[in-house]
Amino acid sequence: MGLFFSVKYGNENSIFPGRAAGSQRRQGICGILMQEDMEMSDRLANIRQEILDGIKERANSRAEAFELRKQFLDSKTGKIGQLMKEMKSIAPEERAGFGKSVNELKEWAQQRFMELDEKMKERELQRRYESERIDVTMPARNVETGNLHPVTQIRNQLMDIFVGMGFEVAQTREIENDYYNFEALNIPKDHPARDMQDTFYLSPEFLLATQTSAAQIHTMEKKKPPIKIVAAPGKVFRSDDDATHSPMFHQMEGLVVDRKITLCDLKGMLELFVKKIFGEDTTTRLRPSYFPFTEPSVEVDVSCFSCGGKGCKLCKGTGWIELLGAGIVNKKVPENCGIDSEQYSGLAFGIGLDRTAMLKYGINNVKLLFESDLRVLRQIDDN
């Protein structure tokens, strides 16, 4: 019989000491591997649970779902992406199983987030449907259509009439100097219009324009005859305030300069104008008057379009209504601009837009045009 002996190495009863030591080493290694497998399984399970909890608690919109997906699936910073980077520290014989587990988790996560994105799309679409839903049984909203101010309506009508006659449009200014507003128009320094109580002076030289006539001078200085312009309707200012006058009002000026211009040309042109504004049955008459910049000067009356000339409250029983001032341009005015008054003559007229609007639409107080009272403005619409 051979000699047997035992060595106390892990198992004191073992009679094969070499086998006992190897067995214990293998058992230790297997234990370590099993423990690592369990730890990895726990990590994967925890990540799964984090994804499920995040979807349930934090993913309330597509933007939040995107941020949650990035937290786990981003190739650089995502938790699953970080697991793939640990591959190099895994024993070669364990890498296949490790990689398989991580890939399965990744595919599962991608599927969950794809389903979540579809769910978010449906939810956002439903919210949009709810916000944009229209109840076709409800009454329609009452949307009022506005209309242009009476003065603007008259302005547009005048521009259409005179541009249709071949007039060009010249620009006006609200601030003028004394020369263009008075002196060049043959208004001497002692004329009452220059008094402080009639004109708003900004300085000894500059003032608020009292008329659009200054546009005539600006035009004749730059252009030689033939000239046919209307000064674009603009604001003018005078120290005057009552039921039919306002410190600020709107005026349009007309000027024609050519050879052999007479009052007949003026009357014929104004006849056409009043017929288009007040009706085909309207006619005009010229009454002698005085303006420093015209000679002869006339007041232009129109036959009353309310009573047909028979006499009424509007025309004060006369059958006629005063409308505008006009005349043949005073020779001194074109001469101030370097135009030969022996060869050329001209006609000029000035129309108050506010007065024309009051007459046409039956407004008895000029202040109604500036109070923005919709009860008044809604009644006037020629468009």
Q: Provide the domain count.
A: 2
Amount of beta strand: 15-25%
In total, how many beta strands?
9
**Spans of at least 5 consecutive residues with low confidence:** 1-21
CATH class annotation of the largest domain:
Alpha Beta
Known CATH architecture of the largest domain: 2-Layer Sandwich
**Number of helices, counting only DSSP H or I runs of 4 residues or more:** 11
Overall average residue pLDDT: 84
What order do the helices and strands come in, and which of them pair?
Elements: H1 17-57, H2 62-73, H3 79-85, H4 92-132, H5 150-164, E1 168-170, E2 175-177, H6 178-181, E3 206-208, H7 214-222, E4 227-237, E5 248-258, H8 263-278, E6 284-291, E7 294-303, E8 320-329, H9 332-336, E9 345-352, H10 353-361, H11 374-377
Helix pairs in contact: 1-2, 1-4, 2-4, 5-10
Can you describe what's shown?
It is a single chain. By secondary structure, this protein is α+β, with helices and mostly antiparallel strands. It folds into two domains: 18-132; 150-377, BirA Bifunctional Protein, domain 2 (2-Layer Sandwich). It has eleven helices and nine strands. The chain has helices spanning 17-57, 62-73, 79-85, 92-132, 150-164, 178-181, 214-222, 263-278, 332-336, 353-361, 374-377; strands at 168-170, 175-177, 206-208, 227-237, 248-258, 284-291, 294-303, 320-329, 345-352. A hairpin with a 2-residue loop joins strand 6 and strand 7. It starts with 16 loop residues before the first helix and ends in a 6-residue tail after the last helix.
Keywords for this entry:
383 residues, alpha+beta, 2 domains, seven-stranded mixed sheet, two-stranded antiparallel ribbon, elongated, disordered N terminus
